[in-house]
Amino acid sequence: MMKSVGYAAQNATTPLAPFSFERRDPGPNDVVVEIQYCGVCHSDLHQARKEWGNSLYPMVPGHEIVGKVTRVGGAVKKFKAGDLAGVGVMVDSCRTCPSCKAGEEQYCDQGMVGTYNARDHKGELTFGGYSNNIVVGERYVHTISPKLNPAAVAPLLCAGITTYSPLRHWKAGKGKKVGIIGLGGLGHMGLKFAHSFGAHVVQFTTSLSKKEDALRLGADEVVLSSDAAAMQKHANSMDFILDTAAAPHDLNAYLALLKRDGAMALVGLPEVPPTVITGALAFRRRSLSGSIIGGMPETQEMLDYCGEHNIVADIEMIPIQKINEAYTRMAKNDVKYRFVIDMASLQK
Amino acid sequence: MMKSVGYAAQNATTPLAPFSFERRDPGPNDVVVEIQYCGVCHSDLHQARKEWGNSLYPMVPGHEIVGKVTRVGGAVKKFKAGDLAGVGVMVDSCRTCPSCKAGEEQYCDQGMVGTYNARDHKGELTFGGYSNNIVVGERYVHTISPKLNPAAVAPLLCAGITTYSPLRHWKAGKGKKVGIIGLGGLGHMGLKFAHSFGAHVVQFTTSLSKKEDALRLGADEVVLSSDAAAMQKHANSMDFILDTAAAPHDLNAYLALLKRDGAMALVGLPEVPPTVITGALAFRRRSLSGSIIGGMPETQEMLDYCGEHNIVADIEMIPIQKINEAYTRMAKNDVKYRFVIDMASLQK
């Protein structure tokens, strides 16, 4: 077994604290990554505090991982020691169901194996990226362009692919009018991608204090969602809306902005099931859908695209010792737009 | 002006009763149809009783109209006196918006002009098919195959196209597993079409008393929706579900049956906005959508398809004098599967 150190939640109420544990020795298909940076996703907070009810302790959160490969198994082809590598939300899946075969492993019929707070196929608890190293099968490890700031790449592994994938799936590109709801960790990436794909992008926000930032990040227009007249100007006009907001909000106000055959996809996943006015769907044949992360091939495609187009997240770097404070600030949306842990701080 | 007679609701509470009124003289593009049969749609009852709040009186309901052309305007090309003709849910639209130009007039940006309970572009109230004749612009009149029973064709103009269109839009054909929720006027047509298109069809019902009928109409399987184990057998397996049920029901139980990228379309339009568990959409990238009737080209395509494949509705014929009794029975779902008024009874 390999020795690892990190920060863990021991239960739902105490702060994250230093934790020593072991990881499996790498098998022939495994890659060992020395973690340099790990993004802080809102779901880390939900899981650590058992807000989704399915938490397993001790929990080492973190699924936006970038680091250096230190060892590879004998059958590994894509990586060698010294390469930059990324690990996202999942570290395994059944590999045999139609979704896995299609490279859409995130929709695995058996359920993906999460990077943390999950049990792997041997029944062992998985531990995430708030730690010094990780051992992952090659299929679930991505190559990273050395041209990008690796710290700012880390959030691409969750916030990036979660927005890139639906924007691609629903063809949000040139000639399309695309809305982005919410300007947080997910939203700011959705905005960057939609702009980069050539869409006309309308950023919806609950606070105009974000207007300048939205314009800087690529919005063509910024709309205050509480301004009914401003909303009405976009009625029946949008091809696609990406909804990154997790706080409860009225979906019907946005569905009304879609043109015929337009689609809205939820990636923020509000916990309270929203109500849907069925006429808002039927009278323009609009669709309401949702999406989670992306498959392994598409995640690599996204990372390659970011390398070519110089796209990374806007981040605030913290040492691991500040993680509990970062959680408190994240719960108040006080971050532009993603905390990233400098894992070198673990040594201090 | 042309003299017309029919049955009308004078307000929300009194029974429908005989009513004399006038229709416009036909213009150069108009077709005059002597109505032979008119289907009785559940929305007729809702509108006559002001259950949707937007009723205009006096109201002559009826938007599933089949009859004989008696006169045509000088510019009319598709029809001549003596032809069979059909009129459905709409009699006009703006003709210039993108939806109208695309032949999807039902999604007209200005709103379609309903066959009854609407105002035409001159502000005149429209009167529907519970009457002896109707004057309609050629674009909104359909040709009918003389091979079919014209009485049983009438419901195709609403129940038929309302189910045909989404089944075509979401490609419910060979190699696809398709669910139909509800076995009433809409559902029985959806079942016939899905079967005819070559899909493997699962009929969902709240009462197994309909099982034999569902099998006769083309179902490959019949599932009692309250049987959780029977429902679970279809989890993650369906490509498309057509939901024709108007009574409140749990959409999430059906969303869970869709495979990755599967879609469910609502055409029954429950009045109480249903709640949607967002994870049920996101974790398989499923879509919830809806659809109303179909455009003029597709309605003609549907009627032609029915002529080629000998598809009509299962009907119970009534004289117009029994319309109030029929409403009472329809409200209890006591009809297999559509009442059709024999308009010759008006002369008695």
Structure description:
Two copies of one chain form a homodimer. With 348 residues, chain A is an alpha/beta fold. Chain A has two domains: 2-158 and 313-347, Medium-chain alcohol dehydrogenases, catalytic domain (Quinone Oxidoreductase, Chain A, domain 1, Alpha-Beta Complex), CATH 3.90.180; 160-290, NAD(P)-binding Rossmann-like Domain (Rossmann fold, 3-Layer(aba) Sandwich), CATH 3.40.50.720. Chain A is built from eleven helices and 17 strands. Chain A has helices at residues 42-48, 98-101, 150-153, 159-169, 185-196, 211-217, 228-232, 251-255, 278-282, 296-309, 323-331, and strands at residues 2-8, 17-23, 30-40, 65-72, 84-87, 90-92, 113-114, 133-137, 142-143, 177-181, 200-205, 221-224, 238-243, 258-266, 287-290, 315-319, 338-342. In chain A, the strands form four sheets. In chain A, strands 3, 4, 5, 8, 9, 16 and 17 form a seven-stranded mixed β-sheet that branches. A six-stranded parallel β-sheet of chain A has the order 12-11-10-13-14-15, covered by helices on one side. In chain A, strands 1-2 form a two-stranded antiparallel sheet. In chain A, helix 8 links the parallel strand 13 (238-243) and strand 14 (258-266). The radius of gyration of chain A is 20 Å and the shape is globular. The model of chain A has no long low-confidence stretch (mean pLDDT 96). The interface between A and B is medium-sized, with 33 and 33 residues.
